[in-house]
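Re: duplicated header lines in exported structure tokens

Our pipeline writes sequence and tokens for each protein into one text file. With two proteins the header for the second block appears twice in some exports. Here is an export where it did not happen, for reference. First protein block:
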Amino acid sequence: MLENGRLMDFYDNYSPYMEIDLMKMEDGYPDTYSGNKCPHLYRCPSCLEDKVVFIKE
């Protein structure tokens, strides 16, 4: 699996420039803001499967 960065950076063209804590409140995961977790997107280069992995900040 290869790490592709924060999941929220892939939402739209302006997402990478938005405030991180603001995006955590709207990312659809209930405990990313309060639990100090950051969802990152991982992709397998051979089968192209995507997986979200929560990284502790």
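Second protein block, exported in the same file:
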Amino acid sequence: MPKDAHNKAAEHHDKAAKSHRTAAEHHGKGDHKAGHEHSKQAHGHSEQAHDQSTQAHKKSEASSK
């Protein structure tokens, strides 16, 4: 279902955003080691979000034909 695919993509986007905010907090406090770890997590979530978004787009196109 395209809706499920879009929901999965949205979940990954939310996780990426949370990790980005947490990384920014740590960097702001001078805790660059923790900030870097959260940045890496954010990057991973962003990649997953992109993959899920691509799949969702393909499923949406296929269901509209």
